[in-house]
Structures are given as C-alpha cells and as structure tokens.
Amino acid sequence: MAVSTLSQNGIIADLAKKVRVAAYDLSRSDVQQRNQALILAAQALRSAETAILAANMQDLASAKVSDAFKDRMTLNHDRLENIAVGLEDIAKLPDPLGKELAAWTRPNGLKFKRVSVPLGVVGMIYESRPNVGADAVGICLKSGNGVILRGGSDCHHTALAIHKAMKQGIIAAGLNPDIIAMPPDSDRQHVTDMLHATGLIDVLIPRGGSSLIHFVQKEARIPVLAHAAGLCHTYVHQAADFDMARSIVANAKMRRTGICGATETLLIDQAIAKKLLPVLIKDLKALGCRFVGNQEACGLVDEIKLASSEDFATEWLDSVLSVAVVKDIEDALAHIARYGSGHTEAIITQDEQAARQFMDTVQSAVVMWNTSTQFCDGGEFGFGAEIGIATGRLHARGPVGIEQLTSYRYEVLGSGQVRPK
Amino acid sequence: MAVSTLSQNGIIADLAKKVRVAAYDLSRSDVQQRNQALILAAQALRSAETAILAANMQDLASAKVSDAFKDRMTLNHDRLENIAVGLEDIAKLPDPLGKELAAWTRPNGLKFKRVSVPLGVVGMIYESRPNVGADAVGICLKSGNGVILRGGSDCHHTALAIHKAMKQGIIAAGLNPDIIAMPPDSDRQHVTDMLHATGLIDVLIPRGGSSLIHFVQKEARIPVLAHAAGLCHTYVHQAADFDMARSIVANAKMRRTGICGATETLLIDQAIAKKLLPVLIKDLKALGCRFVGNQEACGLVDEIKLASSEDFATEWLDSVLSVAVVKDIEDALAHIARYGSGHTEAIITQDEQAARQFMDTVQSAVVMWNTSTQFCDGGEFGFGAEIGIATGRLHARGPVGIEQLTSYRYEVLGSGQVRPK
Q1: Predicted ipTM beyond 0.90
Q2: For position B403, which CATH number holds?
C-alpha cells in the first residue's frame, strides 16, 4: 500500500499526503480541541468578512452564469453569519469518535470491541455554493477527517478566502492546518487527479448538478458517497386522509422545489383520484405549479398535460409535477421501482398494512409514511449537519452527517491465546 | 438510474439484471426459507458428489499450474463435506435482515428507524479454491443478496458443477434460482464487465492473490471490499511476558503461513532483544522458518540475513519472517505506519498503557493485544462465516460476514407533519 501511494505525484497527491499526515494527528485529538477549532474558525470567518465578500464580488463580476446560479454564488453578511453559526452548531454535537459500537467475548476468552474511528481523507468536489465547502470542513473536522476541497471555478476566490480564514481558526486552536487543503488554482485536472487518488483519498463526496455527480461516479477509482438524483415520489393511497394528503403534497412539492428531497412525481390511487386529484392540483396550481401526467390523470384534470415516459424519469427541481393515477399499491410500487432514484419515497394512508407493504417493498434509502419527502435532510433527521445525501448501498445511505463519516476498528484483547490447529 | 442501467448489455449485464430481480424477492423472503435453501443446497452438493469430483478431475487434468495451486484446486469427499457443513452452519446463524439498528423520535413527533436490508447484488471474483464460490453463495443467500460468481478459469468445470447443485437446493426450497449466477464460460472479458457494471452490481469482493486484488481495485468502477495484502506485524514490547511472547510469535508466524492474518514481520524492543530474540528465532527455526532482518537483528542472531527495505514491504505468505529490532514503541509504530497494509497488528506486553498507546495509534482494521494475528478470521470473531477480509475504510473493515453484507434503510413515520419554512 505504502509503495503505490508514494509513487503518485502532482499537486493533488502532494496535498493529499500532507492532509493524511495531519488527519492522522487529528484522529487522535481531543474533542475539546476539535470543537475549539470549529468555534475559532467561525470567529475567523466573521473577522474576515470584508475580505471574503470582496473575493465574492470579484467572482461574481467575472462569472458568466445564469441569475439563479449567481444567486447561489452570492455571499452577504447574513449568509456568512449562517455559515459561522453552522460551525458553532457542529461544535455542540456529540463526539462521533472513540465510541464503543459493539463488544463481545468469545468462548476462548478473547475480548472484541468495535470502536469508531475517522474515515481518513475526504475529497469534496462541489459547484458554487460557498457554504458547501465551509460546512464540509466543519463536519470533517468534527469527525476527525482531513478534507481536500475542490469547489467550482466560478467561485474560486470566494472559496480561497473562506479557506484561508478557516485555517486561521484551526491554527488558533493548536491543530495542524494541513487537515484542510485546497488546490491553488481551479484547473480541471485537479478533479481528475482527485478521482484517481487511490490510497490518498478515502472517499469522494460530490455535491452539485447531476452531470457532475454522474461524471464523478463514472470516473472515480475510489468510493463515492452521493446521490445522482432525487426523483422522489409521494403516493396518495386510497385510504389517505384527504386533508393530510393536501397539506403533505403541497409541502412535498412546493416548499422548496430545488432540493433533492422535493417530490417530483405524485402517484394517486384510481379509487380516490376523481375526488381528490382536482383538489390537490388546485392547491398546487395556486402555489405556482405546472403539471404533466398519464392519460388517466389528464382525463380528470384539465391543467395536466400528457406526459412522455421520459417525464416520469425527470427530476424537475422546479415548479413542475409529474402525476400518475395508478390502479393500486402494486401499480404504485411498480412505478417507483421503474423510475425511482433510490432517494426518498412517501406513502400517505391511514391503512397501516398498506404502509407496511410500501415501506417493506420500496428499495430507496428513505421511506416515509404520512409525512413530507422534504424532511429528507440531515438536520431534520437530527444529525445536526449533513455533508450530503447518499443513495448507494455501501457504507452510508440517506443523509451523511458526522457519524456517517466514521469507520471503525476492531480491538482484540487477549491473555496469550494462540489459534489452534 | 433506471435508464443508465437498462442501456448496459452483454452476458454479465443480462445475468446481473436477472439476479437483481431475484435478489429483490430474496430480500423480502422469510429467514426460514433462506435457511431451508442453505440446508437443501448442502444436501444437493452431497448428492452431486460424483459429478462434482469428476468435473474437478477434468479441471485438474488440464490445469498447467504449480503443485501448490493444484492442491488448492483439488476437491475430495472430505473437502466437499466441509463445504456442505459450512452451508448448514450458516443456516444456524441469526437472521441479519430486518434488524432495528437504531430508533429515535424528533421533537416534531417524526419517528425514525434504521433497519438492516441486503446490499443487493454481490460480484464475487475469485481464483481456484472451489469452496470460495460455495461459501460466498451461502453467505449471500443468508444475507438476502444475489451473487454473480466468477471463479478462476482453471477450475471452471468444478465451479459449474457446484453451482448447478446449489441451484437445485435453492429451487427445492421454493426460491428463485436466479439469485446466484455464473457466466457460461471463463472468458476474461466477464471480469472486466463485472468491474464496470455500475448500477448492476452493488459491491465486488475479490479473493485471491494480490495481483488479482490490485487489478480489481484499480479497474473497478463500483465499490470493492477486499484486502490487497495482509502484511501483519507482531510487536514484542519490552514489558512482554517472555513465555507468552514465545507461544504467540510461533503461532502468529507458523500456524499457517499462507493466510492473510499470518504475521510477516516481528518487531522487538532493543531492551529485550538480546535476551529474547535468539529464543524466538530458535523456536521458529525448529518449525522451519527462515529470517531476514535489520542490522541490529542480524547482529544478535546468526540465522538472520540482512533485509532490504523491500523485504519489510513483502507479504511472504511463506516460512519467512522479517525481523526488526526497534528502539521503542514509537519506533515500532513508525515501522508499522510505513510498511503496514492496514490489516492486523498485535502488541505483546504486560504494560496496559503501552497496549493502549499501540491500539489507539495503529490505523489498521484490527489491532490485538497479547494474542495471535492468526485470529483475524470471521469464524474466530464469532461471525460464523466470512466472505473475505476488508482493509478499506468504507462500509466494512476486518472480516466480512453476513452482517457486513447488509446495508440499511430509514423508515420515517409521521402523522401529517410538513416541513416548515
């Protein structure tokens, strides 16, 4: 292992080696010191406000992107304050390291313990929201991991200014600032090098549009925690409480349309569609939503345009809803199995048996009963903070918080036992 | 997700799609039925003994490999019986599925549960031990996973005969036999296709020599659970009990030299080396071991030849031991950090503080105190059976048993909650 790692060179390899050394020390640090670093990093961000906002202005001035994208890039006093408070909140979370996850004794007297340890070095590849990098540093720092940040080139100066301030906080807490690293420029080659950094980076966490995620998943030679899409379904079962269905569906689709936990497709049982669907559509239309749907849905509500099957495979991330009237729960489950992205699905019903069937059958990371898919979020799960949401099946699924950024080691305590035979 | 998956074609893709459908049903099956399939598969192996041993003779007749390799390939009545008993033992293990791993309620009344589920489809790539494929089927079946087996071409007929018998057992238990699959021939392209089967295979488990493992780790586009090497260290600290050290070192090195948990390097404190090292070497020499070592070691015992630094990076898997006399525990830890493969390391000492320092500092999957590294084995851990040992940090580390082949899903139970703001 050592040999192949040492043979790698270049900016990313050099950074990663430094980060690993620092992360090793961090993994053995006291939680008080890590918390102190988070608090001092928050303070350093506040102190550096002028420089950070100036860097952000510089990025905004040269960015050739859409207005929506510019809004995501933009920092101001309040947004920076939110980032700082986020770090302070992470400092308040319990220590995820050194926890005894399991312990048992074998008949030969050997004592086994499984103890939580950091993953090592996290590679964070993200687009342009400046908070993503800062949040990632906070979560990695708390969980004892080093992190290499590669943000979008449009926001490079902002990211550098934030990075510089956070390093000051880490130094002030007496920790090695090499636990966080950023390539010096926004050369795209750095992304490729991170994807191939076997033995140097332990896990990649990409955050951004689905084309970025697909690229990372396709090209990475190291494990990736991510969700390529959040094509979430809300299924209104025939035994749903109508008022509950109305309030949940409106929230699941329209609270925020751009997040991965937003519902993209409404499934509704034939038996209640005639009565309930027009009401649901009226509610959503009042909130600014447009609709595509299958023939049965179009037959019931004029506002629904006929959908192509591609529409049902589309994560709108917008005020658009795909609607399918389904025969029954089996039909709903088949639709989800065909089009779902493995993220989050919800059933609305008062029938416990139907809910149980739905939850046992859906293969997604998160299945919900009588609540809004928009709750799929680390904060709402009680994780305190999240670095992403994963839909793969290895390691972590669903929101990825500080606990999900840990691994474990086994401690085996003997009194001279040797293995027979 | 659905779209990219469906666009893949070829023998492996077609097999994998069938396996996934069957695995989905298996994931919802009753544990009694899965246990019954294991028991009936064991019976089917016994009934098919004549055909399996004939296929094995055919493979052996045409294999152009070393005698040691031929021995690993060879099946006989006893070895086949061991495979069958192994399946019956797996049937006796507790069900790893549907376990409530965690449960909590949020202030808004939402109830969260984390429940164990299968990983999905396992891709098993192995060399020529016929038991590896059968064990893998047993472990996957128990844990609700489908499995695609790709064994070494030298043993293809044996693997096919075993596979055919096990399918009969699965059918007899009323389960879909598509949960296990094997490509029809030993074309090497199948391996490449498995490595690239994103969305079709959830995890790859390679078993075999380090060149196979390195190849899989380098080329795979999907997660891999494996250990590339088992360069395990036993460190005899100055506060070791000498008798205990003698018995543990002899066992750790020589009980079986070809397994990944065998100790490859002995580290011993300067302070006791003059007195203890000659005794340890004498013990080992009597068992047939040869030695390379650093200058200090060579200076103390004639039998030790001067090692190159490459020797310390070598997993001997043979009756050869690398020996380094070290200044102190810091020196020992530095040696392990430089040459270790992240598998298993042991300290022999009566000094609890030194043991604690060793266990907190070593970054390997398994750290041991006063016992033999040869205990790094799923059976010895109490897992009942293992499909491999992992040294990565994502998902599972150490022995991979039925529990390690599970993932989880979140169930979120509401009563109409919608997300505010």
Answers
A1: yes
A2: 3.40.605.10
